[in-house]
Amino acid sequence: xxxxRIDGQEQPYWPAGPFKIxxxxxxxxxxxxxxxQGLLMCAVDLSAIPLMTELLGMPFEVALAVVILxxxxxxxxxxxxxxxxxxxxxxxxxxxxxxxATFPEGPERVHALVSFQMTLGILSILIGATGMxxxxxxxxxxxxxxxxxxxxGFAAVISVFKIxxxxxxxxxxxxxxxxxxxxxxxxxxxxxxxxNGGVWGFIGKLGILPCILLAVVIAxxxxxxxxxxxxxxxxxxxxxxxxxxxxxxxxGFPPLHMFATxxxxxxxxxxxxxxxxxxxxxxxxxxQEHRPDEKIDYNPDRAHLIFGSRNTAMSVLGPDVTMCGPxxxxxxxxxxxxxxxxxxxxxxxxxxxxxxxxxxNTGLFLMPIVTLVQPILGVALTLTLLxxxxxxxxxxxxxxxxxxxxxxxxVTGAVLATRGASWxxxxxxxxxxxxxxxxxxxxxxxxxxVKDQK
Length: 454
What we know:
Elements: E1 14-16, E2 19-21, H1 32-46, H2 48-56, H3 60-79, H4 93-100, H5 107-129, H6 132-139, H7 142-161, H8 166-169, H9 171-186, H10 188-195, H11 198-205, H12 209-221, H13 239-245, H14 248-251, H15 256-290, H16 300-317, H17 329-339, H18 349-365, H19 367-373, H20 377-399, H21 403-419, H22 421-436
Antiparallel strand pairs: 1-2
Helix pairs in contact: 1-18, 1-20, 2-3, 3-16, 3-18, 5-15, 5-16, 7-15, 7-20, 7-21, 7-22, 9-10, 9-12, 9-20, 10-11, 15-17, 17-20, 21-22
């Protein structure tokens, strides 16, 4: 029997220091629509496999073991009180791959990835443990926050439509699937239709699951992918080879100089990661406005402790080029959109978040699911990137408080998408100094936006 919350308060939990433990069926209702959605959305988790085989030369079964380990750590967020669907540090993946590619393939490149991920993890833990995350979030000028979030959106969209990107490989499948996706998630017309329940209400509860199923069928019809070759068995991740050939257990601890070498790139990746924290806070805040019956406690310090520990643990057990980020922005929006429709749609946000991640973990072990989505892994990743782009720009613009903020944010975002996080942050700081001077931290509020008007 699920513990019931008092209207307007937090979902019940067991306190544990900075953490709030919530277990399925005890502290939150299991949400089957989100679980079923997670079963197929494991396709995005699986799309990390080509990245690892390309960078580290991992066999499929070894890379699958890394994905499964990462999936198990995904569960720690909602179980410990962080109201998010965790994911990759997506905009930083090209940066990380470029850094690791400067080392020769083999043990040295694995050591470079291990030292990078461990450095990032320890940095995040220190920031969370000292309570600095709250202060950092509060201290960053709104114009720079806006620019980082907008830039992450630009980068996500550019990665899809650049020459040789996924759009060139699946033009028809992506066009049709993302069209349906945007209609189901953001359309005013469909929102009215689903509010009346019935078939449309049921489809509305499924998030982007119908879009993934549609892609499985459309891609072969247009000759952009083969028909799935279903295998009726359980997946066989190779943990033995992973730990023997791609971790510190088999290769030894990386040389200390590699940790020093990783610091500048880790700092740049943290800036991108910090942008995801800002974005997550905004998504949850928007959802909270529609659901006063459940108080949502998003604590950046707690989030830092959890994803910092995930990165540190994965650097030892299975280094992952996608890193362990604070949130999967696209799916966070999908779940929050359903949550915002009311308690009948989703009793608690933690029920939707947790059920989804239990679903993705189940899917990784079922070969019928893995083989069903294997031909369209690139499409699944593209859908999440385009949703992330749409939401990032929308939220990033609303972080601004004036027209000057918007100008700074636009330039900062474009620099982030084209030159990286370090250049973007430096650009934002310089523009704020030049434009606001002594008002660097305060900026201005010119009431351009309705949210700032009395």
